[in-house]
Amino acid sequence: MESFLRLLTRGNGFLLIIILGAGGSFQSGYHLSDLSSPSPFIQRFINSSWYDRYDDPPPAQTVTIIWSLIVSLYAVGGLCGAVSVKFISGRLGRKTAVIFNSLLSMVAAGIMLTSKIANSFEMIIVARILYGFSSGLGVSLHVMYLGEIAPRKIRGIVTLTSATFSSLGKLTGQFFGLSEILGREELWNIYLSVPAVFSLVNIMALPFLPDAPRYLLIEKGDDKACKKALESLWGPADYKEEMDEMLTEQAAMEAAPPKSPLQLLSDRTVRWQLISMSVIYTCNQLSGMSAISTFSFDIFLEAGIPADKIRYVSLGLAVCEIITSISCGLIIERTGRRPLLWGGYGVLSACLVFVTITMNLQSSYWVPYVTAGLIFIFIIFFCGGPGGATATLNSELFIQSNRVAALVLMGIQRWSIFAVMGFVFPFLINTLHSYCFVLFACVCLLGCLFIFFVLPETKGKTLLEISEEFEAITVCRKSFVGKKSVETRL
Fold first, then answer.
1. What is the per-residue pLDDT across 407-446, written as a single tens digit (0 to 9) for each?
2. Which residues pair with 5 in a beta bridge?
3. Cβ–Cβ < 8 Å for 445, 473
4. Which pTM was predicted?
């Protein structure tokens, strides 16, 4: 932690981390929570818009379907954005790609802002798709950029800031969603356009900050620009050791050129790494966290919390999330990744079981607040465990030549699951009510068991040491790995 603080005060690294966060996972976090507050207003807008066109109120099922499309098509856009990260970052470079993504976010905000004036719920859907594309691309670029500017000693803390900014985005979304700020029926379109302000800050500041040093040396072959970028970020010093590590990685890339997602899927040397990341991403998406973030209003209403108090409870959730996310950054290099992951999933599973019980015992006045307390505990252990620690794994399990392809694959999986959940959850909670959380509890339990018995610890280890631990994994005394992997020091 001391080395981290010392490095932050010597250059522009801290400023770049903030600017990248504003245009990256912050935007994704905001959009994950921003539909919770105005959801009744938007559904009434759908009703009025439909009535103005057809002189007849829409069926309730039609409103539910349109609302589900508004939620789920955001994830479809996110999926497309995640798939395109390899092409866009390769063509434009890291910094220009982030600027392009911020411009796209501003276009989406303009469409959202004018949708109410145009009396068009279709424009909301278009804006949500563009927001999704920007979020899917932005999160992947954010994690990639952080991994390529971070010195090895503080790699875990720097990459974990992506989770912190996601939590900060959710907090900002909940804050602006208060009825005293923008959470009023006449202001919902302005509320959903707020991220454009942060995108503008990103566009104005990034041209004055350096591109990623690893990208400049490894992919562009410009050692002078790399050294200049390192000095700008972390202050004047001798960066020979850092650059030697990058050159070693460059040599490994020349021996094993960058892979496409399909090539990575067929590579047996990283089979367990892909399986582990896939399981963790699936458990994160099906843990119930994304459902709680997006549908917190409906969940607390179902739990029995008075409607006029729900926004304040949701704001408290967001505050709790960001504090826990920052705390996770302070302890991750001491505790390691595994305990945070399997321990977190274990507690999440127990919380969801108790949430199911309390949501079925609403005869007492105090029971809904016990449910809210359990959800707070859920948020604490998600952000302090799987939600935070997962962000560090991609840069620790895959070398530079595999990293972008791995990001694409995980992005496809993440956004596909999110799209399905966004569309299905409104019907799920209407059908199963509180019992839908039992499904999430089972997923969390499976994640806990898999990580406890399979995933090796990555803290402070080289990629060779991590690869050897994965190679030692066997199923029915057989290994997936057919050949040894190339060592690359990070």
1. 788 878 877 887 777 667 667 767 776 677 888 889 899 9
2. none
3. no
4. 0.71
